[in-house]
Amino acid sequence: MTTITSVDVVDVRFPTSLSADGSDAMNKDADYSAAYVVLRTDEPGLAGHGFTFTIGRGNDICVLAAQHRAAPLVGRSVEQIVGDLGGIYRELKTDSQLRWLGPEKGVEHLAMAAVMNAVWDLAARRAGKPLWRLLAEMSPEELVDVADLKYLSDVLTRDEAVGMLEEMAPTRAARIAELESSGYPCYTTSAGWLGYSDEKLRRLCQEAVDAGYKHIKLKVGGDLEDDIRRLGIAREVIGWDANLMIDANQVWDVPEAIEWVGRLAEFKPLWIEEPTSPDDVLGHAAIREAVAPIGVATGEHGMNRVLFKQMFQAGAIDFCQLDSARLASINEILAVYLMAKKFGVPVCPHAGGVGLCELVQHLSVFDYVAVSGSLEGRVTEFVDHLHEHFVDPCIVEDGAYRLPDQPGYSAEMHEASIAEYAYPNGSYWASVAVPA
Amino acid sequence: MTTITSVDVVDVRFPTSLSADGSDAMNKDADYSAAYVVLRTDEPGLAGHGFTFTIGRGNDICVLAAQHRAAPLVGRSVEQIVGDLGGIYRELKTDSQLRWLGPEKGVEHLAMAAVMNAVWDLAARRAGKPLWRLLAEMSPEELVDVADLKYLSDVLTRDEAVGMLEEMAPTRAARIAELESSGYPCYTTSAGWLGYSDEKLRRLCQEAVDAGYKHIKLKVGGDLEDDIRRLGIAREVIGWDANLMIDANQVWDVPEAIEWVGRLAEFKPLWIEEPTSPDDVLGHAAIREAVAPIGVATGEHGMNRVLFKQMFQAGAIDFCQLDSARLASINEILAVYLMAKKFGVPVCPHAGGVGLCELVQHLSVFDYVAVSGSLEGRVTEFVDHLHEHFVDPCIVEDGAYRLPDQPGYSAEMHEASIAEYAYPNGSYWASVAVPA
């Protein structure tokens, strides 16, 4: 028997605010950070790695929450945990005292994501498979057993979920072969951060086109005249056949979103992302109706499956951008993919930050192979930052993610990176003045 | 000039799980707790006290979050802060790095509630008035200046808000006089916790009737046959003229809620409270349509004003049970009261826990005096637990809250209570075995 012997949770922060990487209308000085969980075992070489993503201050709060949430795992049998990945999820999530602090949202849910991401990484490593393949080899019943369908039965029953997965099962192998050849399509956000100069924007757009991207995303919502000028530059460089997406990062009220997006319609954006509060289902529905044919996208702050259920029910979004470190790992993400399939909404996961690209490549591949069976309208975010800190970094070629082939969820960071960027005592932070 | 010299945040926990007080279908072993904030100043005798309420484990996470959130207050001028209570709220809430952890939900929002509750307590103490009176003496413009209307302009403009308050302003004094004579009506939840025996239920229902209550609430949702038997006992004791409310604490999916409540309809409950996920606006709307004329109530886990906006827009609730320690204090609560007024939904605040009754009495009085001007359909929760720990405890007589008359928000705890129940080093916890 293999046992989980301890849980380490580390506060890791990268000083990205120094370069304006990641700057947008809401988040001007992000220090991309991770509350990083390692489940250690008594089997040499076997550990589970997972994390949630934050943008700096408060990462320590997520660390503390993850320590609480993971505590019941210590001393448990690895075989038992990976043999019932739905059971351990439900056990951790139903701690009634911790539940009060959400439920299923905010810091507690970020911590749950970090811990369960580590559990799924452990399961895939133990199976000797990349996570997408572990999932793609599970039967429809096994997948539905691990999915969290609580509060969803008004739109999705267990039988419906099994039925949808069964329909795709016979053709899984062909889709795996297809993706092994072509990769999974992605788009880049690296060009369009709000803090970049026009010259840098122009150069990065050209580099993106040269690298084979057919989708490019720009941040908007700071100043209307700036947005008009920057979108003009982008269209000049990428032309009108490529897709241009815009992202307001929640800065507008509903009427303001409708007005502002209307002023940018001449640039024919594919979608407006996060036009308003991420909690506002009915607001997104109103915006979608007003700005069509421009699509509405949201989800990186989509707090849980109940929010996505309503986004689908209300016809509020054209693109679902679930987040791999905000939803409670595979158990909840699977439920959102199943609902998206039923409602016919493409899932284009949020990525970037620290390590989110490493995670979402597994999700997108699994979705195509086992759930949606479609690439139409689907393109996964890619941001070219901080991959050097990961042991098994994602690889993007010709605007597509190559399929990961190492065991696990690609979540492990280099020990040297942790030693340098652990906060506040890593070698980088010890060398600069950290405010008390 | 008076200065905030330091912020203390204390983890206070009461071992209420020992007596099954507070037990319901979701929360079986609550230890009522507070992340308790004290803003100390250099004026002798002047401090601001506030808290958020939790049910045990994880209270330390809220303490850490409150420490972060309150840090910018240290060294500030009290005059400046109380002179611009909207400004300090916006400054604290827009920390973009902390915002990522919500936004405006979960642990971070509970912490914001604790800190801003202390700020409002400080403002009222400095003015020498109970908080309800401080608010009731502010002009419509002043009130709207402190209210957080962000993300609400699709349902409520600033001008509409001022207009609604102006309409009630000339008659405020008469309503104050009325409440000073009669008190504000309340109901009791003390009778119906799920862990109580039938005999205790019967006795407590009789005591509630004898004490003048016209509304009694029971917990349901554990076992249908138990619920039918317990509601039968309650109706036997209180008769059919008194109001009986039922509370499921989020245990059901939507179809299950409709089915179960249908089976309890013979007992003619006034409302079903928290039938499903607190995030499910469309689910509550569906339940409301199906169970009418039984009303739907929710809000103690209503995470922020954007959720309440949608509850009102969707016609999802008959009673709004906002929580004084989950919403971000007066700034956000005021916005919810204004929307409730516009949509004609009575606000019946959630209370109980630790100190929530002390807070909500101020809110209900202010609502009647300055916002709604109506008592119709309004009754505020009262639970007779833990008031002995407060310096200015609420007083309930004949089923009504007497108006508080001490300066502040009635949020201050006795130092002896803190010394005993601070976790894990207070004298009570030091005397029992606390798990590591």
UniProtKB/TrEMBL annotation, chains A, B:
A single MF term (Gene Ontology): magnesium ion binding
Obligatory cofactor(s): Mg(2+)
Keyword Oxidoreductase set for record: no
Cross-referenced Pfam families: MR_MLE_C, MR_MLE_N
InterPro entries from the UniProt entry: Enolase-like_C_sf, Enolase-like_N, Enolase_C-like, L-fuconate_dehydratase, Mandel_Rmase/mucon_lact_enz_CS, Mandelate_racemase_C, Mandelate_racemase_N_dom, RHMD-like
Mandelate racemase/muconate lactonizing enzyme C-terminal domain segment(s): 198-294
EC number: 4.2.1.68
Reaction it catalyzes: L-fuconate = 2-dehydro-3-deoxy-L-fuconate + H2O
Keyword set, alphabetical order: Lyase, Magnesium, Metal-binding
PANTHER family: ENOLASE SUPERFAMILY, MANDELATE RACEMASE (PTHR13794), MITOCHONDRIAL ENOLASE SUPERFAMILY MEMBER 1 (PTHR13794:SF58)
Protein name: L-fuconate dehydratase
Organism: Compostimonas suwonensis
